[in-house]
Amino acid sequence: MSQRTLTTQEALEMMADAFNEPLENLLPDTPRDSIPGWDSMGALMLIAELDERLGLELQAEVSREMKRVQHVLDFLAANGALAP
Amino acid sequence: MSFSRIDGFRIAGVSTCVPPTRVDNLDLGERYGAEDVRKVVSMAGVRHRHVVGDELTAVDLCTEAARRLLDQLGWAPESITGLIMVTQSPDHFLPSSACVVHAKLGLPVECAAFDMGLGCSGYPYGLYIAATMLKAGGQQRILMLHGETPSRFVHPDDHATSLLFGDAGSATALEASPAASPAPTTADAEPASFGLFTDGSGADGLIIRGGAFRDRSPADPRDLCVRMDGAGIFNFTIKRVPPLVNDTLAFAGLSVPDIDAYLFHQSNRFIMKHLMKKCGLSEDRVPFTIEDTGNCGGPSVAVTLTRALSERERDRPLRLMLLGYGVGLSWSSAIVMLPPDAVLLHGVCAQAPATATPDPSETKP
Asked: Which stretch of A55-59, B21-25, B28-32, B322-326 has the lowest confidence by average pLDDT?
């Protein structure tokens, strides 16, 4: 569990940084396939952001199963890192 | 207990060699896509790579590095009592590459020679074995070679590895020296500290599945090339390397500023920068060479040592932390002193390829 939390907006901003994607393109329902930056390198960026900002370990196999932005938000919530 | 302290040896010199063919990744946009290439250059940090092609091997690169080092040190080949070749890019399954190099260098029969099959973690491991041999007695001078040609492992369609890997060979000369006193008065006499670790459960994360005896002729030719789970390797790196740095420092009774340079395996600039942040290391103590030589496996530690430190003023012994991590999964560290008079060489291998071992079919009766 993370000692720190992000709001949904902050989480989306984090993903925008990781995937080098304009924030307005990232909605919970946005599929991974439509985010060019969410490729293998983007996945590494997300792992790094979660580690650095929240001390969370996103395992590679969990990362591979993430198919839309909501799945990242779900991961944050499951680890106590998403502010209600 | 995976940490140990060893004295009774010194590093006399390090020599590294890269192949003459230099690839500019930015020239490969048409083949791999401009965006993929841009990402590799900007994030992984690899602009140029030296690659062997079909003619040179890790044995050739290491032999050339060793020849130059012996020449510069003025060490006669007959004075070498041990040869260790750390590689996962051998010329043959058998004999060992060390035996091939032994002949090429003209070393005496009174010389132990053997291979160690390690990759990215191989440089500290190789130093550790050399140090233990010197400490044990009987050995006077050891050449520890570490060479890899990962560009030969990659599948041309695999952008993640094709644009990342370069090739290099290295030779490190070590010799026996008087054992350090319990409280050494000079840093030069300080014992070295080593940390060696393994997690074989992650072996699938970086693997060539076929070609060896588990699957001699794989149904999928792709299995003759390396497969890398980049995210899985990153998970491993984040989890293991920061504690490796901190625990090695603690074992040696040192703190971050006590180390003059942290020489990381040049895996990927983005990953290395993340590790630096997590370990609290400043940029001036962590040299990067990946931009010009790519990820050349474990020898990248030696390449960084020769390239970064030869440009630096060395009026005193330098205390170095050497860090290897990757395939295995295996990770390792060493804190060693580099004497101010240690020879450091880096250059391009211009050696003409030669048949590694005599082919009996070519022998005339």
From this structure: B28-32
